[in-house]
Amino acid sequence: MMTKNKKTALVYAVDLLARQEQSSHRLREKLLRKGYGADEAEDAILRLQKKHYLNDEDACARQFQFLYEDSRNSVKQICAKLMQRGFEGSLVQSCIPEDIYERELKAAVRCLAMKFKPSSDRQKMLANLYGKGFGSEVARKAVDAFLESAE
Predict the structure, then answer these.
(1) What are the sequence ranges of the domains in the chain?
(2) What is the DSSP letter of 86?
(3) In this structure, which topology does domain 55-98 adopt according to CATH?
(4) Rounded CA separation 38/72 (Å)
C-alpha cells in the first residue's frame, strides 16, 4: 500500500486560494491548524505575496466593495465581517467611502422590507436596525421611509 505524500504548505495554500480569496492572517491560521510549521507557513505566505497571489490590500478592497454594493449589511457589519476574515482594522477602515449616508439608508430600508410589515411596531424596527449596526439617524430615517413607502 502506497503512502500519500503530504502536500507542502505552499501547495496547500495555493489550493486554499484557488477555492476562496484569503487574508494573510487567515491563510497563516489555516496552515498552522493543518499542522505545518510556523517557518514553512511563513515562507509559503511570503512567496505567495512576492508572486502577487496574496495581497491583503487588494483582497480587502475587493471584498469590501462587493459587500458594500451587494448586501444590506451596515458598514459596521461589513467591517466586522472583514476583520473576522483576518484583515487589519486600519486596512478595513481605509476602504470606507467618505459619504456613506445614502447607501446606509437604502440598506436599512431593504433590511426592514425583508423582515417587517408596515403594521409592525416602530420600536422593534428601530431595535432591529440598531442591532445590525446602523446609526440612530439612519435607523429613524429608514423607518420613516419604510412606513411612507407603504402608505
Answers:
(1) 9-51, 55-98, 100-151
(2) T
(3) Arc Repressor Mutant, subunit A (1.10.10)
(4) 38
- 37, 64, 134, 143 from 110: Cα distances, Å: 46, 19, 12, 10
Residue 110 CB partners (closer than 8 Å, separation 6+): 72
8 Å CB contact between 55 and 19: no
Model confidence over 97-140: pLDDT tens digits? 999 999 999 999 999 999 999 899 999 999 999 999 999 999 99
Return the percentage of the chain with pLDDT > 90, whole number: 91
> How far is Cα 13 from Cα 53, in angstroms, rounded to an integer?
10
Q: What is the pLDDT of residue 6?
A: 81
Q: What is the 3-state secondary structure (H, E, C) of 116-140?
A: CCCCCCHHHHHHHHHHCCCCHHHHH
Residue among 57, 54, 50, 101 at smallest CA distance from 75: 101
Question: Shortest CA distance to 97 belongs to which of 119, 142, 65?
Answer: 65
